[in-house]
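Entry 14. Structure prediction run on the chain below.
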Amino acid sequence: MQGKTKQENKSKLHTHTMKTTLSTRIGGLNEPAANGNIDRSDEPPVLVVVDMMLEFKASRDPELQDAVAAEIRRAMAAGEAIIFVEYAGGNSKTYNALLELLTDCDYKLWCVVEKHADGGAEEVFEACMDNGYWPENFRFAGVNADGCVFATVEGLCAKLRNCRIEVVRDACHTDSGWKNWHRKFENMPRVSLV
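Output returned:
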């Protein structure tokens, strides 16, 4: 397998430095940021795939698996980084069929991290830093949407004041029975449902 967990040798992790723009957009021209902030809203998002593991009932839905696979293919086609987040100590790992989308074509911009709580914001941030992915724009897929996905999104929003996050409705699911899980995200600044 190409991707490595954080506990394995960091030199074996796939790395890629994303292009950065050290200016803000003003009137169509690139001008240095007067307030010291750097506008990187045009940076490609990092796709974060949360807990797509057999032990989570919601992840077993074939339509969800297809939607997550489509998100992975979209990210690969755009040359975007992908982080798979797994619950540490679980009885399973990310579905092989999803990882094989990357390994079969020798895609390099991805890694697997383990989290020890529902939220994996710290692990996602560290993976971005360790691998040279820009940690400001994210796109989320996985389960459980009202649990681990929400907790990770909420944690990134708290940690990164300029982040922008897209939660892909068709590529997220929950087994809680709550059909309106997406409402948890609706009033979050910098978060959009797509």
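Helices lie at 62-77, 96-103, 121-131, 145-159, 183-186.
Filed with the rest of this week's runs.
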